[in-house]
Each structure stands twice: as structure tokens, then as C-alpha cells.
Amino acid sequence: MLLSFLRLGMGLCTAARQRGVACAAFACLSSRSGILKQEDESLMLIHKWKGAGSALTFAAGILALPLLAQCEQEESATYSQEDVAEHDSPEKEVWVSYEGGVYNVTDFLEMHPGGAQRLMMAAGGAIDPFWAMYAQHKTAEVRELLEGYRIGNLVGGAQQTYGDPYANEPKRHGALIVRSQQPFNAETPVEFLSQAKLTPNDLFYVRNHLPVPKVDSESWKVSVKGEGMRQVELSLEDLESKFKKHTVTCTLQCTGNRRDMFNGVKSVQGLEWSAGAIGTAEFAGARLSDVLAYAGLTEDSLGEVEHIQFEGLDSDISGTCYGASIPVMKALSRQDDVILAYEMNGQEIPPDHGYPVRVVAPGITGARSVKWLARIIAHREESGSHWQQKDYKSFSPNVDWDNVDWGSAPAVQETNVQSAICVPQQGQTVDASDEEIEVQGYAYSGGGQGIIRVDVTADDGETWITADLSPVHDRRNRQQFKAQPQMQSYRFCL
Ligand code: HEM
């Protein structure tokens, strides 16, 4: 318990000095937003301490005051890069440096939202190059959190400069609504979505987790391997010549589409997507099932193989790449049309969308359609990637970052019904004296489920008007599927 208070005291002391007065430490306890560790090792957001009562605040304050002098002393301490390098494990403590500061983040390891394993990559060294990559850290809140762990400065300050991992980003269309620059994330203005059945490539939403890799399509190859299979490497030309070209029109949607609406109910973390993190394109490429069969995946392998993992060429400086997986039955199903796409709306796949080849898994959340495809692995386990294990999962509203048990929920695969009004736009004023207002929008369902009906209300649910849906002419909407239109649709209705 004492250790917890010491940690708290030191955090307070830093915050107090930042504010210029020692007594600010007390106010800081109840107002600062950040993460503290409790004795039971669980995560706790500082704002939760608000309710902990004045006794706790007072006790922490008493401890913090004698520590002020010690903090000042510790934080003016200087360390060499070798000193930092010696602290590269929880047993020896985990130290990192950032912009010339030295931080002991041992207590933060298990609380890191990006995972302890990732933080350990920087153990004993600089986090600067990692944060240049994962630029979502570059906020005042994260910086303040880090400052709570400062123990001193590097001798001579920050000595090394790091290249910009985002130096090779492609040019983007100015109409995209940018949600984050690095990594680049942007959505389509919704009025385009309700007007065109296919979203133009330049206006298609972009969801990147890392810098866009520079890929030479001449030397690009995808490796395919797995239990009981031969390992093969296929070039772009192989994919085009050895396998029948298969075209599928499908909607891809970011798992966080319309997250900003949640914030109206309860504040949530993550990019504040509005309703434009969704789009429909005509993709063409080789069927994944054909490629897996070519590499020797047979029905006999199915006991051994339960998931098809994908890895992209987008990686951070440690070589950790983006990865995801889908169930093998989805990958093998001829009906489910999973393809390794080399064309998007009749053009080569644009750099932001996975040039030269990406996975397109219709009906499944966009995070599994891995871009800049490098490796396909048929495996008993699903992908161990952060984005499969500790992201893109769904929990009850009472689960938060402080009590989430990632292992208790499956990774999102097929998505549920989604719909949004695009015209008039959110916040737009309409003339109440008009007898009629035209409302346009989209509706979509994952798993190949078609939309049967869309109902719209203008009076909080008192009365409903059933919308006219634009027909969706999918390959799957042929005569034999008319009896079951809900099973074969991959794109949204307008
Ligand atoms: C002591 C240093 C670090 C601190 C204080 C820190 C803090 C944080 C915080 C507060 C978040 C949540 C951000 C948000 O969702 O808005 C986060 C997420 C994350 N961090 Fe760190 N981090 C540190 C080091 C690192 C390092 C070295 C790496 C990479 C090797 C890393 C990779 C990530 C990733 C991948 C995420 C999750 C992003 C996502 O879910 O999209 N972090 N970190």
C-alpha cells in the first residue's frame, strides 16, 4: 500500500511542479485525468479517485509534501544512455527516454493500453521513434501521463534525431474528413455516400494503423504457409495468371464507424468517426480459397487449421506488423467471396488501400481485410496481433479501460446492422413549414445479410415511414437467391 502512495506522491509532485505550486498537488488528485495503479494491480483512472474520500486525499497529500524535495532532487538527476539501457526488464526496472527526459515506467507496464509487450520494445531505450510511428501518443494528456514517471534527464539532452516514418505518405484528396494525420485516418463526407453506389477510390475512407509502406509491385510477393501445406510465394503476376479473376462488390466498414454518437451517451476512447467510415467498391482479385487450395490446404487440414491469419507490410520500427485473422470456414467458403484484391473500382489498389494486394473479406469488419498483404498463415490459433486480441472487440457498457478483460470477448468478425442518415446532415436546419423533406442515407448489414426494410421517423418514434431502397444488383442477387435475399448481399442500400 505504501508503495502505491509513494508512486502517487511522486506523480503529484511532478504535476505540482508543473503547475508551479506545491498545494496544487491536492487539486490535481481530483482533477487530473490519467492512470494510476492500485495495490491489487488493477487499472484505475484517476478520476475514479474523486470519490475515494477526503481521508485518502489528505493521506496522499501528507505523503506527497515530504516527497517534494526528493522529487526535485530525482528529477534533476542526469543519466547516460547506458544507465537507461541497464533498466530493460521489470526485474531491473523499465526505464525509457523521451525527448531528453528519463522515465521509470515499471509501474505503468501492465496499464499500458497498447499492451505491456509493446512498451517493453522500448525498454532501456528511447520511445521517440515508436511515438513517431504511433503518433496518437502525441497529445497533452499522454505527455502529462508520461511526465508522472519522470526520474531525470539524459546527459546532454536528446542527442539522437529520428527520421520521419511518415515521410512517404501518399497525397490525399482534400475532401476527406481527417480524423488523424499520423497514422492517416479519414472518412468520406456522408453526402457522397448516399449519392453514389460505388465510393470513388480517392474519397474512400482510410483506416491506417501505421505508416503506408512503400511497396515495389515488381518484387512484391505474398507467402502462404500452414499446417500440412507447402510454403509458396506468389508474385502479383502469379496471382493474376494462375488464378481466375473474381470480382466482388462489397462494402467495407471500419469497426468504429459512428463512434462519435457513443460520446453523446458516454465518453469512449478512439478515433471520433462520424458516419463516413464506410464505403463500397468493386474489388477484383484471386479467390483466397483458390490460393489456399494451391498451397495444399485440403478438407483434411481442417482439424489442424481453424483460422487464416494475414500479416501486412505496414510495421513499426521493431518489425511488428499489422495483423488479423478470419475463421477458416469463411476463408474457404465459395459463397463468401474472400479475395486477394489487386483492383479497386477497376484501378490498381491505391497506396492508402493496400497496394499492390489486400484482403477483401466481405461482410466482415474492415479491420480483418488486411492491406499491403505480406503473409497468409493457416493456423489452429487466430492472429496474436494486438488488433485481433486487444482491440476490435465488443463489451457491455459497464466495461471500461480500467476493468476490461480482453480475453473474455471474441474478436469482431461479421458486423451487425448499421444505418445512418446522410442528408440532411447532423446539425443541419430544415424548414419546419415544408410539408416534405427528402431524407437520404444508407443501411448495411454484415455477414452477407441484406437489408429488408428501413424505417424513418421524424417524431421520435410516434410514426414511421418506410424508405424506398435503391435496388442492390449483386452477383448474389441472381434468380436462385431471390428466395433468400438476406443471405447474399455485401453492399449497403441507399
Ligand atoms: C511509457 C511510454 C508510453 C506511454 C505513457 C503510453 C501511453 C499510451 C496511452 C495513454 C495509450 C492510449 C491512447 C488512446 O487510445 O488515446 C496508448 C496506446 C497505445 N500505445 Fe502507448 N504508451 C507508451 C509507449 C508505447 C510504445 C513504446 C509503443 C510501441 C512500441 C506504444 C504503442 C501503443 C499502441 C499500439 C497503442 C494502442 C493504439 C490503438 O489502440 O490504436 N506505446 N499508449
Task: Describe the protein in words.
The chain is α+β, with helices and mostly antiparallel strands. It folds into three domains: 73 residues, no CATH class; 87 residues, Roll (Flavocytochrome B2, Chain A, domain 1); 231 residues, Oxidoreductase, molybdopterin-binding domain (Sulfite Oxidase, Chain A, domain 2, Alpha-Beta Complex), CATH 3.90.420.10. Helix content is 21%, strand content 23%. The strands form seven sheets. The protein has a five-stranded mixed beta sheet with strand order 3-7-6-5-4. Helix 1 packs across helix 2, helix 1 crosses helix 3 and helix 2 crosses helix 3. The protein is globular. Protoporphyrin IX containing FE (HEM) binds next to helix 5 and helix 7.
Helix content class:
10-25%
Major pleated sheet: 5 strands, mixed
CATH architecture of the largest domain: Alpha-Beta Complex
Strand content: 15-25%
Query: Quick one: how many beta strands?
Result: 24
Oligomeric state, counting identical vs distinct chains: single chain
Which regions contain 5 or more consecutive residues with pLDDT less than 50? Answer: 1-71, 475-488
Query: CATH top level of the largest domain?
Result: Alpha Beta
Q: Reading side by side through the largest sheet, how are the strands ordered?
A: 3-7-6-5-4
How far apart the termini lie comes to 58 Å
Number of helices, counting only DSSP H or I runs of 4 residues or more:
13
Radius of gyration from CA coordinates: 26 Å
Q: CATH superfamily of the largest domain, please?
A: Oxidoreductase, molybdopterin-binding domain
Q: What spatial form do the alpha-carbon principal axes imply?
A: globular
SSE class: alpha+beta
How many structural domains are formed by the residues? 3
CATH topology of the largest domain: Sulfite Oxidase, Chain A, domain 2
Mean model confidence by pLDDT: 81
